[in-house]
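Predict structure. Input: Mycoredoxin, 82 residues.
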Amino acid sequence: MLTMYSTPWCGYCKRLKSQLDREGIEHEVVDIEQDPAAAEFVMSVNGGNQTVPTVLIVPPNGGEQIVMTNPSIVQVKQALAA
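Output follows.
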């Protein structure tokens, strides 16, 4: 499962979301301005900063979670393939 932490005004988030849609990659978008727990998670993995997009990939087989900050679509696809 892929979760993208985002804000409505983030241009990088909009670009990545459109690329995920175009590639047919299922994802959930979480607005960190509306979800305090999501904002806390983003800060916990970004040195206290609310940097978006932050992507969380949870492998279906229970493998290790992958967290990426402002990744390219290529990096996302590589992480999903791993």
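The mean pLDDT is 95.
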